[in-house]
Design goal:
Layout (H helix, E strand, L loop, with lengths): L5 E5 L5 H10 L3 E4 L23 H13 L2 E3 L9 H4 L5 E3 L6 H6 L8 E3 L6 H16 L2 H9 L15 E5 L3 H12 L3 E6 L76 H5 L4 H5 L9 E4 L3 H4 L5 E4 L13 H6 L5 E4 L8 H9 L5 E4 L19 E3 L10 H18 L14
Parallel strand pairs: 1-2, 1-3, 3-4, 4-5, 6-7, 6-9, 7-8, 9-10, 10-11, 11-12
């Protein structure tokens, strides 16, 4: 039986071969794509781009395309708040970003009857790689290595290791799960902090695992393992040892910090015993699909922070998570802990973070997002050696558009079949 015709408007730049894939996927589909009417990408897979200065005729043509749309691949770049009026037939928008809550609330689109789906999970692998990069940058002492290299100093010294440490991942959506698995593969103990055990403690009804479907970010174009994959490279590293109280070869340190055999010079629990803390209680706090990850709720965050060597933020920005990592909570982290923020800037009290870094309490911060973007030139973060500044680019890789197209085509077949769409935006949750 033939399907009713549908018109798709592509509202941000997409490579011609991907446009052809969409057009060929459904014989009842009309694809409208006029890149000369769209923002010009400034780098590969840029969905913002430089806004074009349209002539009156071009602006009218763009409005005409929107008026025909049943489905949109990305939002109207010109006047997004007017989308319901400019596109009266529009029923569904596939976003190219994972976090659209602030945007749809700011533009009032959350008050419309248009369905939105996000690109959640698409960016999980590159973001997990950035999180590991940030943690290793500070734990392996890259800034110190650079100083020694620039000074042409050849002097052997003791380094530290990531394996055996505790990594706390806040947010257990697709991105958080990938981050958890990636750190697990490197021999760390991972604590996952979910909104609640029903909401994030399991995949929701639209989750890939719940529907026995492959996760979009479960594979890359290079065939590397993604969310549901496993690596064979997660062997624990050689035991590190430092003069600053990091884990030592014999399992003891001069300052009583956790050692790899579970003991310290002062008899405190070491890394191995800390990971096992709680016994049967910790074993009960596990998550389907994440064996070995100790799952806690957001209400237990204060309890887990003092055990955390690396804190990775993967949560959406909602009223509940804004300012979640406050100055007080930064103080709960042990001295030398590393913060990685791949969530949204306002999740962290940025002033409190700067103060903690300046005081030497935190060992480092790898930041892809900030309270104000672009990060103002006056921000102290630019000049801090213990900070890695990434211009909100950690998620963008050359294969992103292809992955979003895969997601869109999967959702298109679901739309046709009247099935729930993947990554559906929930207005009540803000993500």
């Amino acid at each position: 039986m033939s399907q009713p015709p549908l018109t798709v408007v592509i509202a941000s730049y997409l490579e011609p071969d991907l446009v052809e894939r969409i057009a060929a996927a459904d014989p009842g589909l009309t694809v409208l794509y006029e890149p000369e009417l769209l923002p010009v990408p400034q780098y590969r897979c840029d969905h913002g781009g430089r806004r074009p200065e349209l002539t009156a005729a071009q602006s009218e043509r763009w409005a005409g395309l929107l008026a025909r749309a049943d489905i949109a691949f990305d939002f109207d770049w010109e006047r997004p708040a007017d989308l319901p009026r400019r596109a009266p037939k529009l029923r569904w928008v596939q976003a190219t970003s994972a976090g659209i809550g602030g945007f749809v609330q700011r533009t009032g689109l959350d008050g419309s009857d248009i369905e939105f789906t996000t690109a959640g999970g698409i960016h999980a692998v590159p973001l997990a790689e950035f999180a590991v990069t940030g943690a290793l940058h500070f734990i392996k002492g890259v800034p110190e290595l650079r100083r020694r290299q620039q000074a042409r100093v050849w002097e052997r010294y003791t380094t530290a290791q990531l394996a055996g440490r505790t990594v706390t991942v806040v947010g257990l959506g697709g991105m958080g799960r990938q981050v958890a698995r990636t750190f697990q593969a490197l021999g760390t103990h991972v604590i996952g902090v979910a909104r609640n055990r029903n909401a994030e403690g399991r995949l929701g009804r639209e989750g890939a695992a719940a529907q026995n479907l492959p996760a979009i970010d479960g594979h890359t174009t290079e065939g590397r393992p993604g969310i549901d994959g496993h690596t064979t490279e997660g062997r624990p590293g050689i035991d590190g040892h430092t003069a600053e109280g990091r884990p030592g070869i014999d399992g003891h340190t001069a300052e009583g910090r956790p050692a790899t055999d579970g003991h310290t010079a002062e008899g405190r629990p070491g890394i191995d015993s800390r990971a096992a803390q709680g016994g049967a209680e910790a074993a009960a706090r596990t998550l389907d699909g994440l064996p070995g990850v100790e799952v806690r709720t957001i209400g237990e965050l204060d309890e887990v922070l003092p055990r955390t060597d690396v804190l990775v933020l993967c949560c959406p920005l909602t009223p509940e998570t804004e300012g979640l990592v406050s100055k007080r909570r930064l103080g709960l982290l042990p001295a030398g802990a590393v913060l990685v923020n791949i969530a949204r800037g306002p999740v962290v009290d940025e002033a409190g973070l700067i103060e903690s870094l300046a005081a030497g309490h935190l060992g480092g911060a790898a930041l892809d997002v900030f309270a104000t973007e672009p990060l103002p030139a006056s921000s102290p973060l630019w000049d801090m050696e213990q900070v890695l500044v990434s211009p909100h680019s950690a998620s963008t890789v050359a294969t992103e558009n292809a992955a979003i197209t895969d997601l869109f085509l999967d959702n298109l077949s679901r739309y046709r079949a009247g099935e729930p769409l993947r990554n559906r935006y929930h207005r009540d949750r803000g993500y």
